Every structure is written in C-alpha cells, then in structure tokens.
What does this fold into?
Amino acid sequence: MYQQYNNNQTSLTLPIELGLPKGHIVYVINAFIDSIPATVLYANESLIGRPQYSPATLLKILLFAYSRQTFSGRMIEQMAQENLAMKYLIGDPDVVPSYRTINRFRSDPKNRSLIEIMYLYFRQSLINNGIINHEALFIDGTKINADANKYSFIWRKSSEKFEARLDVKTKALYHDLIQEQVNVAMIAEDDRTSVEALRTANSALDQEIGQLDKEIAAEKPVVGGSAKKRQRRRLKKFQHLIQTDYLPRKQKYEEQQATFGDRNSYSKTDHDATFMRMKEDPMLNGQLKPGYNLQIATQSQFVLYYQVNQRPTDQRTLIPFLEKIDFEQTPVNYIVADAGYGSEQNYAYINETLNRKALIPYTMYRKEQTKRYRNDPQKFQNWHYNTGDDSYTDHHQIHFSFLKRTTRTDKYGYTRHYKVYQADEYGDPEKYYWSRTPKDHPRQISVNENWQQQKETIRQQLSSPEGGAIFAKRKIEDEPVFGNLKANLGFRRLAVRGLSAATNEIGIALMAGNLKKLAQ
It folds into this structure.
C-alpha cells in the first residue's frame, strides 16, 4: 500500500507555479513519469505495514536531483526540504522522504524492472514524436568509478599463488599427522587441501587428543617425562595451526575465487567492482581503479539502452549488451561502434544472429588503409593467391601449398577455424633459405578465411556512401552523451555499491540527462 499522491492538491500550488519559469525541467520530468501507467509503477506495492512513498514521487525526486548534480542521499533530502522546484514535484510540502528512503529506493533490486520500464516508455515517446528512426544504433562505453577505496584490490594471480603455497603446507601437515598415527585415512589423497578435508583433520585431532587426555590421566609418573604428553603437545600444535591459520586462509581463498567469477580482480569495499584503467589519471602512472564498464546505445544523443558490466574491455561486452536490446521496438539496420568492438565473434553475432549490418572497424582497419601496409611484401594479404590449387606465392616466389585445417579455441570458449599453408621443398639454395625458418623448419602461415571475409565486408560497408555517412555520425552521437554525463551532470563516481544498485543509479543518471536534453 502506498501513500496517496497527488501534486495537484497543495496549498502552495499557485506560488510554486508562478515561481518556476516556463519550460523548466520539472514539467518534463513530471509529465514523463505521469505518462507511465499506475499499474506499472505500483507493481511492487505491498499491502501490509506502513504506507510506502509513491515510486512516482521518488523517481521524480531522483531525476531532478541528478539533473542538478546532486547525488548524496542527505543532500537530496535537504534539497526536497528547501528547493522550490522539488517541492512542486513532491506535491505535499509536509511529506519529505528521508535520505534512508531515497537510498533504499535507488539501491533496491526490485526497482531494476521499474527503471527498465521507464526506458521502454521513453523510447516509445521518442518514436511517437519522430525523434528517432530505424537507421542505426550507436554503441560506446566508458568507465565509471565505483564507491570503493582505490587501494582495496584483490588480484586473482596473487590469490592463486598464495593458495598454492598453502596447499603445499597442508599436504606436509597430512604427512606429519600420518607419522603421529592420527586417523586421516577417510580423507582422499587428492582432496587433502580443501576446507572439508581440513575440518575432517581437525575432528580427527580432537578425537586423538581426547583419547590421549584419558590415557594421560590414568598413567603413573614416568622418569624422563610422559611420551603421551609430548605427543599431545605436538598434536595440539597441529590443531592450533589448522584452526588459526590453514583453515581460515583456505576459506578466505575459496571465497575470493568464488567472488572473482571470470574477472581478474575485485575490490574489498565493493565486491562487484573490477579494477580498470580509467581515462582520468591525475598521477599519469596508469593506476587501475575500481569501477564499472558502462555501455550505452544512442540515437540523436538520447540514451535508449544501457548496461553496466564488470568486464574492463569493450569487445566482450558487445554481445551481452545486444542481447538486452529490444530490436522489435527499435528495428535498426546498422550497429555502429568504434574499433574496440571489432572481432570475429561480434561480427558473426550481428550478421548471422541479429541479421543486421555492422559498421564497426576492426583494430587494424586504419593501418591496413595506409600505403606502407599495402606495399609491405611480408604481409600474406599482399601475396598472390592461386585460386586453382589453393596456394599462396610470396615476394620471394616461395610457393605455399595447403597443408591442413585446424581450430583454435580461446579462453572464453570461442572457436576459430584456420587453413594452414606450408612452403614447398626447394633444392635451390636461395629458395631453400627463404622457405625455411631460423630453426630450419618449413615456413607456415595460418589463414582464417571467415575473418578475412568479414574484414572485406566491413571495408566495403564503411567505404560505401551510406555506411560512411552513418559511421561519421558516431563521434557526435556517443561522445557528447558521456561528456554531458561526466562534465555537465558531474556524474563520475557512484554513490551506491554493488552491481544491481550501480545499474539502478546509472540508469537514473542517464535518464536525467535524457530529460534535460529533451527539456532544452
């Protein structure tokens, strides 16, 4: 159950409306949020407990605050108490949400769907008004600093190195326990480094020490000291080592490996944040900082879709981002991005799965257009290809015949197919020299035909009048959005922690930028 909300019934209606200039952004925010049906806004309504604040109220408060470069929950609450435009959005001057309510709302995972629906209605509004069309989606990414200490890093390689050292010590400990005749036979030999194995060893030591306690209590004094007491001291030393060192460290390393996922680092302050190289580098030392990789899809400088990723590189974020886009609502013909997204896997997904055209240059696209590259005789792309016998001939007149087909699978699971060509045998000393490697093996080249065909297609599409004109818009589509977000709105660092909360907050910040542009 939500509190009754109606900003048209207030004792200050006349003074507030007179105090706001015509075309103020609050009118755009108010009209946009009110255009979303109440059944959608109140989908998560609870019928028990104290009535909640209306999601419409909180969304309007956050959108206006972010458009005014205010991101702190306490500052937003103060703004709601003192700002005339904010009071217009709230309606009832006596009802002001606290900073806790504001922070909980923008961090709540349940509100992810509400923000996605907000973008759905915004896109439909732009389509209805003819602001966007079906020409192309422009995709780009930027890094946003997480709300985390920049020295709170945990590195995968360091964790794996120290865990391996601990495993060596753990195996040595089991050898010592066997020498002390402790019953550790129930622990498999290939499982002696796990947390469960250490707990089992600790239980076995408990039983052995308990048995020694009984035997020591019953034995008589012995000249030279009791051997059982000496054994008990050794076993207690092993148990102390397990309880205070080996077991806690092993649990810590396993938790770290689970937190890493497919990442190489994370922050102790915000476990979802990954250490990335930021463009803002005041120390000029390439320092990595905890952050998130924001991907956006724009048209007419309006953000239509966005996604927050934990991967530092743009290339691996493209397919997950495209999977999220609703191509039924925005059936564009072209996907436009910079060279950081160009890869065989991405081209195949766009062309074959989405049935769209990619205007995405690959990494070597610009270099391959240069005269120096095209005249370089060492590049097999510049060699003569013999279609009849499927072979290559280099500038030394060395003939490379087809040898075999092979595949290579990268660490992310994508498989590429290659054709291997090998230099023929020559009796002539000079040709023999050019047909062999420095280690006197036959020279070979590997050709990825699919990749070569994709690059040729990309070159044709980028050089065509239509494709070139669309790709030329990329610089004035995405970059101004990021400039507006970071410079004009001042949104460079998150105020919340966790991937879900970061996705919510960035969605609100981008929508505030959209509405601010729409109001202008």
Summary: The radius of gyration is 32 Å. The first helix runs from residue 13 to 19.
